[in-house]
Amino acid sequence: MIDYFVGEFMKNRSELREIVMKVLYQIFILEESSIEMDIESLKKEQLEMENEFVNEIIYGVLENRSAIYELANQYLTGWPMDRLNKVDQAILCIGIYELSYTKTPSIVAINEAIELSKKYSDEKITKMINAVLDEIYHQLEEKGN
């Protein structure tokens, strides 16, 4: 696993995903409240130095959010994305983005989302995130992605 220098510390991708989740959470909350924000400032609150991996996921999720939500809503039964809390939305967005738009191995993308969910959500939500990501994974496999 590749580690990334951040200040005096090394952060692995799991820790960086947690930072991404926190930044996306803040963005989603601020947007819902119609509060202006500076994404770069939000990132700097969580991360001292620029990080390509963090930037790719944050901006990738934001650029593809409508497609990500649409895909999630295909597999969320009774709970569309906008009804999930912002933390769960951020976690699911990261997982779907990594499955759909990056070369992250599927098992890693799903496992990382599940681990974040175990830390920040309850067991029911973790199972739901796992099920949704598994369905998306199988859909992408059928399409040959």
List keywords for this structure.
mainly alpha; disordered N terminus; globular; 71% helix; 145 residues
Q: What is the end-to-end distance?
A: 23 Å
Structural class: mainly alpha
Residue stretches low in confidence (pLDDT < 50, at least 5 long) are: 1-9
Count of beta strands: 2
Treating each run of at least 4 consecutive H or I residues as one helix, how many helices? 7
Average residue-wise pLDDT:
90
| Biggest sheet layout | 2 strands, antiparallel
Following the backbone from N to C, one meets helices and strands in this order, namely: EEHHHHHHH
Strand order of the largest sheet: 1-2
Give the percentage of residues in beta strands: under 5%
Give the radius of gyration: 15 Å
**Residues in helices, as a percent range:** over 70%
Q: Which outline best applies?
A: globular
Describe the structure.
Helix 1 (13-32) runs parallel beside helix 3 (52-63) and helix 4 crosses helix 5. A two-stranded antiparallel ribbon has the order 1-2. The radius of gyration is 15 Å and the shape is globular. It has helices spanning 13-32, 39-46, 52-63, 65-75, 86-101, 106-120, 123-143; strands spanning 4-6, 9-11. The model is unreliable at 1-9 (pLDDT under 50). It has 145 residues and is mainly alpha-helical. 71% of the residues lie in helices and 4% in strands. The chain is built from 7 helices and 2 strands.
